[in-house]
Specification:
The chain is of the alpha+beta class. It is about 40% helix and about 25% strand.
């Protein structure tokens, strides 16, 4: 045994023997003194235990709040997804109603088509739709939207067709400026950059009095495109030595275009129409 431990043991024995040889009153005084000495430590320990208990309760309360927050956030995210889905359905419903209204009110026969393919490299030039020969779609037929002229059919196949957009320079349309005698040829620009391509209206009078915001429509000349189909609005006009040119903002939003309508010959539905068509064919 170590000397320090031996000394401590001897002191404890001596203290115990001394305490046992004291009178009852002395023992009580000793106990009182002992308890007075250790009382602060007992009280401090109780306070520490109370604080520890309160801390544990606070931690448990924080975990409960964290769980409630997590559940509330998940519910909020779910509600946001539901609201976004409802807004998408609302937008689709509005777009469908506009399309149906256009199809009902247009003065010629059209069929609806959905854009199914669009290449980034030819974004402003061509699109592919889900209608082809078996749906009555043929070459050079006009393609429209409720906002205005989209373009024309270029290469139909059995089930699909390629559409040349109005923003392509190869799609040239006879156009007129509303409220003026001005008329010319409108087409896309070759090197269109940016998110909003412009159209070029050429062969105008060199001193034409055109202002921004004027509407541009099809003339119907040539018989390819129906007359009075909206093409866009005048942005700027530049006079030239021989003729003037105007930049035109397209009426159709080609960035978000999804559904279009192809103007096709009206199908023969009555016996009289079929008989007349057969007679004309025989005469030819």
């Amino acid at each position: 045994m170590k000397p320090q431990n031996l000394i401590a043991l001897l002191l404890f024995i001596v203290g115990a023997v001394w305490a046992l040889t004291r009178s009852e009153r002395s023992v009580r005084n000793i106990q009182s003194t002992y308890y007075s000495a250790i009382s602060p430590f007992l009280k401090g320990g109780a306070a520490i235990e109370t604080k520890a208990s309160e801390f544990i309760q606070e931690v448990e309360h924080s975990k409960a709040l964290e769980m409630k927050y997590k559940l509330a956030k998940e519910e909020l995210d779910q509600k946001r997804m539901e609201v976004a889905h409802l807004r998408k359905l609302e937008a689709e419903n509005t777009h469908l109603n506009q399309a149906l209204k256009f199809q009902e009110n247009v003065p010629f026969h059209v069929i609806a088509a959905k854009i199914i393919r669009r290449q980034p490299s030819t974004w402003w030039h061509t699109v592919t739709i889900d209608r082809g020969d078996k749906h009555g779609v043929g070459v050079q037929l006009p393609v429209l939207s409720p906002e205005g002229l989209v373009g024309k059919i270029d290469a139909p196949s059995k089930d699909t067709s390629t559409v040349i957009l109005l923003t392509d320079e190869k799609c040239q349309v006879s156009a007129k400026v509303d409220g003026t005698p001005e008329a010319g040829i409108i087409s896309g620009l070759r090197d269109t950059a940016g998110e909003s391509p412009s159209l070029l209206l050429r062969f105008l009078s060199k001193d034409a009095n055109l202002k921004p915001g004027m509407l541009v429509f099809t003339t119907g000349r040539g018989g390819l495109f129906p007359p009075d189909i909206l093409l866009g609005t005048i942005k700027t006009f530049a006079p030239g030595p021989l003729y003037g040119e105007a930049l035109v903002e397209p009426a159709v939003d080609f960035t978000t275009l999804q559904t279009v309508f192809v103007k096709i010959p009206k199908p023969l539905t009555s016996a009289r129409e079929i008989g007349a068509a057969t007679a004309n064919s025989t005469k030819k």
